[in-house]
Design goal:
By secondary structure, this protein is of the alpha+beta class. Helices cover 25% and strands 26% of the residues. It contains 8 helices and 21 strands. The structure holds uridine-diphosphate-2(N-acetylglucosaminyl) butyric acid.
Length: 342
């Protein structure tokens, strides 16, 4: 096991924040991962994946274990479905492209989401009317304390909007080593419903013309995302910094009297979700910049690092935004990104 000290994490977080790991190791196999977990059994560890959903506020004092396990394998094929097991360290978008190429349907709407496969279940990644849970079969995990290997089913993971067991009762309990997806094999069946209902996506597909297909949906999503969301290689960011707040319908109706243009998505009979991007935009923050920390000029839901911003500076902008939205609308917006301060 190779341990590196004072290891730079700038290249390993999509915000591009300069911070260091006191100790860092990158196991390349499940066996090596177990060795590292055993070695640090008496300490709290910090698990790093694609680094796409976190803000490093300080140097990381806990030992960092970077999960880079690679491999994609078809494990089962039924009449209409194909089961694909993907190791945690595979890049999410590369896996989406693999599926598009093989004609496996289910995750095309999730094209271009940054991050790795192993962290995708934690926040049940979602976009354009589709969530990870729709194609999730199971995941393999290691229990950090006992080093026991387990398989968790769809029901075990208790998925919700940007939520799962890994953020709640099982937080810090497991390392996800691989995820198995259940996808529709379009080489064998055409019994599959594309999800094209989401406003922007429908428009983009019309623009592309021709019969919709998983290839077209992926192309359309890539086009929409790249026009609104900054490429982390060019402008540091972690996608949506905030979650869309869920509020009571009665509260929403009161707010509508004063803010008649406020959009909403139905959650259930009694609740609606309000786009945080709209709230932040209306609060006047779109494109605002404080030194190198700021709010993206094309999508107010995204905070950006223009170069040398520190995690603390990004966090200060986040607080300004949260306070302004609260003062104007009385709505609290929570962060979607994990704030790393230990
Ligand atoms: N809006 C504004 N100004 C802005 C941004 C948005 O007025 O600066 C308005 C839009 O006009 C629209 C509404 O807010 O009426 C919703 O905006 P949009 O569809 O762009 O984003 P969203 O629904 O808030 C969610 C996810 C995204 C995902 C998109 C597409 C969350 C927190 N975000 O955004 O996820 O790509 O839907 O499905 O649920 C991510 O998690 O990193 C991410 C980008």
């Amino acid at each position: 096991m190779v341990i590196k000290h004072h290891f730079p994490l700038k290249e390993h977080n999509t915000f591009g924040i300069s911070a260091f790991a006191k100790a860092y190791t990158a196991p390349a196999s499940v066996q090596e991962l177990k060795e590292a977990l055993g070695y640090y059994h008496d300490q709290d560890i910090f698990l790093l994946g694609g680094g796409s959903n976190m803000l490093l506020i300080n140097d990381v004092q806990q030992p960092v274990i970077h999960v880079l396990l690679k491999g994609i394998e078809v494990t089962k094929s039924t009449e209409n479905h194909i089961y694909v097991n993907v190791m945690a360290g595979e890049n999410w978008h590369d896996f989406v492209l693999y599926c598009i190429e093989k004609n496996f349907a289910g995750i095309e709407n999730l094209s271009l989401i940054p991050g790795n496969v192993g962290t995708s279940p934690i926040q049940n990644i979602g976009a354009y009317g589709v969530e990870l849970q729709d194609s999730f079969d199971s995941c393999n995990v290691i229990d950090i304390k006992t080093l026991e290997e387990k398989t968790l089913s769809l029901a075990d993971c208790k998925f919700g909007y940007r939520d799962s067991i890994f953020k709640n009762e099982a937080a810090g309990k497991y390392v996800i080593t691989s995820v198995t997806f259940k996808l529709t094999n379009l080489n064998k069946t055409d019994d599959y419903q594309l999800k094209t209902g989401y406003g922007d996506l429908k428009e983009e597909l019309n623009r592309l013309g021709g019969d919709p297909s998983i290839q077209k949906v992926s192309q359309a999503v890539i086009h929409i995302r790249s026009s609104k969301l900054p490429d982390p290689k060019i402008l540091g960011n972690s996608g949506s910094f905030f979650k869309n707040p869920v509020i009571k319908r009665s509260v929403y109706e009161d707010l509508l009297r004063m803010h008649s243009a406020m959009p909403s998505y139905q959650v259930d009979e009694e609740h609606v979700k309000v786009p945080a991007g709209w709230l932040i935009d209306q609060s006047g923050f779109k494109g605002k910049r404080y030194g190198d920390a700021g709010v993206h000029d094309k999508q107010a839901l995204v905070l950006v690092n223009h170069g040398k911003a520190t995690g603390k500076e990004i966090l200060e902008v986040a607080h300004k935004v949260q306070n302004a939205v609260y003062d104007l609308y009385g709505i609290k917006i929570d962060t979607e990104v994990n704030l790393i301060d230990h």
